[in-house]
Each structure stands twice: as C-alpha cells, then as structure tokens.
Amino acid sequence: MDTFVVAVLVCGAAVLLDWLMGEPRRWHPLVGFGRWASLLEQRLNDQQTFPAQSLLLGVLATLVAVMPAVVLAIFLQFLLEGWLWLLTQVAGVWLAISLRGLAEHGRAVSTALACGDGARARLAVGRIVSRDAAVLSDEGVAAAASESMLENGADAVFSSVFWYLVAGLPGLVLHRLVNTLDAMWGYRTPRYLYFGRCAARLDDAMNWVPARLTALTYALLGNTRLAVKCWREQSRAWDSPNAGPVMAAGAGALGVTLGGPAPYSGGVKQRPLLGSGQGATAQTVEGAISLVQRGVMLWLLVLLALAASLNAFWSGGIG
C-alpha cells in the first residue's frame, strides 16, 4: 500500500519537475540509447539473410539493446534506499514522459500556422513526424501535428506512467526503450519487416492497456459521446491496434477529422478518416496538447484519490 502511495507521489513530482525544467537539452539517456540501437542494427541487420534469420536477429538485437538498462534498474532497487532511491525514481519518470517537450514541439507548429507562416510550420512538423512535410497543406500540417500530440501523449506520457505504477522503474525503463526501438525499427519496409518485428510486437503488447486508458481519458475530457462513437466505429480500420483507439477517440473528443491520405517519401499512404467535423487547424493542435496535459492532471487526481482511499482503508479509517 505504502509503495503505491510513494509511486503516485513520485509521478506527481516528476510532472512538476518536467513543468519546471522540461527535458534535458543535452545528454538525454534516450539519445544515447538511440545511438546504441543504431549501432546494433547496423551490425546485426543483414538484409541478405532469410526472413526467419532476420526475425531471430531482431529478437537478439532487441534483447541486447534493452536488457542492460533493465537489469541496471532492477539492481538499483536493491542498491539504493531512502531519499536517493526516491530521487532516482523521480528522475526516471521525468526523463521518460517529456510532457513539456511534447507541448513545445506542438506549439512550434500551431504558432507558425496561426501566424500564417506555412513554411515554418512545415519545417516544425517535419521534426516530429516521418511524412513528407514539404508537400503538406496547412490543414495537413495541423492534422499531422495533432495526430503526433495524441499518439505520443499515449506512448510517451500515459504509458510511461502506467508501467511505472505497475512494475516500478524496471517496467518504466523496459517500456520506454521498447517504444523507442519500435519508433526506430517498427516499419513495414524491406529493411525492417522481419528485423523490427519483435520490437514492434512487444511495443504493441505493452501499450495495449495504456492506449485504451488514454483513449478513455481523451473521451472524458472532450466530446465524450462522439469520442466513444469514433473509437468504437473507426479504430479497427487503423493499421495500429493501439494508435487507432487513441487517435479516433482524440479526434472525436476534439470534434475534428484526422487521418486520411498522408504523403511519405515512398508515396502517398491511404489511411482511413478518424473523428468527425471540420479539418484540422492551429487550434486543433492546441486542443490536442490540452487533452494530453489535462489528461495527466486527471490521472494524478484519480491516483491521489485512490492512494488516499487505500491508505485510509489499510490504516483502519474505513470499516
């Protein structure tokens, strides 16, 4: 019981630290991990191998990439104690969520769009999405940024909090590193189709529950009826089992239409429409940012209430 109360307080402290400081501009652990993962991929991803061999090499690369950090997190639970262990957990959650950084990236797009500077908006959105930003219309830029806010809010923020609460620092580290590998290797291209499959499927499994909690959060904080309708009717058509519910519910909550055809370097990808209503604008990006931020506040309030209730129950205050 006490462990849960401490975990909730750690999450609150990490969110406060993120609000005050944002993410580190230099020496971010995920940047170093990305370099390590790239090196592994270059060494192990031999595209001349058969599919089964490529799949096995992808499993090996995933294990080699994530296990040292996960094992270190497990050992830290036993090596550290008191305030030092508490601060280590706060730092871990802070480095994982990047809530302020997400908002800053989104606002770089919305501010440029609101000022009528489409070129700057396309440059800004190109930093957060993989589609061909140079050919996007202003509505396409706004939609891309809004989708990124909604999906990354689920992947980086809510899923990180969920796995920290469920499995502590080791669970948080495992989730965040697997999610990073999925972002790097989880593509259905000849290079990554088999090699990245382990990371992609593991990421799908770890995000299944948090994605649906995120979709519910978005629905509660916006147009609830429309969000639930879009979630129920549209999410299965999306190619990702977790992004579909999150973005369908988010689009419905905002009362806008997202999805649709998207240009990539390899051509235009035909995607189903999500949500209902007008097309995306700068205000849509701001609305998506607000959904994530208010969602975090809602989670913290619910968790604090739950922690207080459990504490009262176990201390004899109930019954």
From TrEMBL:
Annotated GO MF terms: ABC-type vitamin B12 transporter activity; threonine-phosphate decarboxylase activity
GO cellular component: plasma membrane
Sequence similarity: Belongs to the CobD/CbiB family.
Protein localization: Cell membrane
Name under which the protein is recorded: Cobalamin biosynthesis protein CobD
Domain of life according to the entry: Bacteria
Gene designation: cobD
Topology of this chain in the membrane: Multi-pass membrane protein
Keyword Cell membrane in annotation: yes
